[in-house]
Amino acid sequence: MAEQPTFAQRGSTEAVEEGLAFALKFDADGLVTCVATDARTGDVLMVAHMNAEALRKTVESGQAWYFSRSRQRLWRKGESSGHGQRVVEMRVDCDQDAVWIKVEQAGGGACHTGRRSCFYRAVPIGGSGAMTLEFRDAEQTFDPAGVYATSNKLPGA
Amino acid sequence: MAEQPTFAQRGSTEAVEEGLAFALKFDADGLVTCVATDARTGDVLMVAHMNAEALRKTVESGQAWYFSRSRQRLWRKGESSGHGQRVVEMRVDCDQDAVWIKVEQAGGGACHTGRRSCFYRAVPIGGSGAMTLEFRDAEQTFDPAGVYATSNKLPGA
Q: Which residues, in sequence order, are CB contacts of B140 under 8 Å at separation 6+?
């Protein structure tokens, strides 16, 4: 018996936006954008990508899997660092080309630089010309050197 | 006198990740991903794209500007609907290819389908095979037919 396909064919705009068929629009590289937020605080932890297999594994296991564009391979968040993400809820957007997962972040944080969130710098609003960033919530919550093996320094997307 | 460039040249990984120069990595189409969350609730309202000009306008004006891939043009969120987004804070991620804005969403919501958020359907976790979505926070908070002119039906990215 043939395996049941995970994703539906995309129909009309009406079907994609108002229907209940999971009809993701993968980009030319076979990816959708995934935003992971902290289920407790609402903070955005990271933005990464999923291919069809990463998405299927995430849904089936309840653990976040991504596809690394730089390394061109599937990875389970936490496979190197031990800082996995348990998915509390997954949502898909109106045109079904992005997903949002609310996660329980294990360990010190999501960012390979040792912070809880990858978004640890702010862009001041109201300026013009050259923009200078400001650190915000940038304290390290773990030591990345102690967590990642040298050969595995860049777990990100 | 030459205008001061908005964005810095990208240096080493160390400089991009730990520095204060705003050195965005635009993709092959000249875009970065932007996640907009509700500054009050933390909910993800939408995921869209910004090009350099949209980003500059957003920072200078404090109102969210995006670049529509489908319409290939710059747009200010709310220009059709009146439902603008005031940017409370902007963050950039570790490798500087995504930004996160916390916004005060004007009007009924951010989604052109009439919902507060574009993420009004959940993907059940733990299943396998064909996945069926479930509506979640999907009540319409405004009537899109009354808000968008017919010629402007798809304000999204």
A: B108, B113, B114, B115
Contact predicate A66/A77, CB 8 Å: yes
Measured at the alpha carbon of residue B121, what is the angle toward residues B127 and B43, in degrees to the nearest 5? 115
Which member of B3, B33, B60 has the closest CB to residue A47? B33
- H-assigned helices in B23-157: 52-61, 144-147
For chain A, give the longest Cα–Cα distance: 62
Which residues on adjacent β-strands are paired with residue A121? A135, B92
pTM score of the predicted model: 0.91
Do the chains contact at A123 and B92, CB–CB below 8 Å? yes
Please state the separation of Cα A87 from the chain's center in Å. Answer: 11
What is the spatial distance between Cα A133 and Cα A65, in angstroms, rounded to a whole number? Answer: 30
Contact A112 B90 (CB under 8 A): no
Each of the 157 residues of chain A gets a pLDDT tens digit; together they read: 455 567 889 999 999 999 999 999 999 999 999 999 999 999 999 999 999 999 999 999 999 999 999 999 999 999 988 999 999 999 999 999 999 999 999 999 999 999 999 999 999 999 777 789 999 999 999 999 888 765 444 544 4
Q: H or E segment at A13?
A: helix A13-18
Gyration radius of chain B's alpha carbons: 17
ipTM, interface predicted TM-score of the complex: 0.91
